[in-house]
Design goal:
The chain is an all-alpha fold. It contains twelve helices and no strands. The longest helix has 15 residues. The radius of gyration is 19 Å and the shape is elongated.
Length: about 190
Amino acid sequence: YQGAERAYRAALELDADFPQALNNLGLLLRDVDRAAEAVPLLQRAVEVDTNFGEAWLNLAMALEETGSQSQAREAYRRAVRLRPEDGVARANLGLLLLQLGEDDQAAIELRRALPLSRGDAAALQAIGLGLRRAGQPGAAIQAMEMAIEAHGEPTPALLAELALAQRANEDPTAAEATLTRAIELDAGFAIAHT
């Protein structure tokens, strides 16, 4: 990371308005838990290139990490407008809206993210969790089934989240069967025992 940081800073000494270097340095700083330092770099990247969707997404995540939720929401919305097929941007926007208490709008964004996130088990798991919390258990079940498929095999954690969605969908029989599968995979998986 240190070598990459030096290289990006050297590039910015040559051209302080090089949006890719600003974005990449901001992303690197986020990766090493220096989001507060990343924010001004990412803000500059989107000022220089207002259509730089990846930088808008990275800015939104950095803003969220620094506790600036309302600014993050606007940056996520901009990222979604520029990258409408980006499931991560939509999922992150939906999860942030859920934190802000905007459950209906969160559910819309999370449902839109669902087909865009095919094959991404982590994103689908986050979407499933968000949909369940937004009061959409049927869609949450779909997301968790897609997450298990994307992962290639069930894991106790994926099965536990699926069981929570099934329970929220008022299907305790399916939830119990799913938790039994989780325990069969890992008898020590404490969450499945609760």
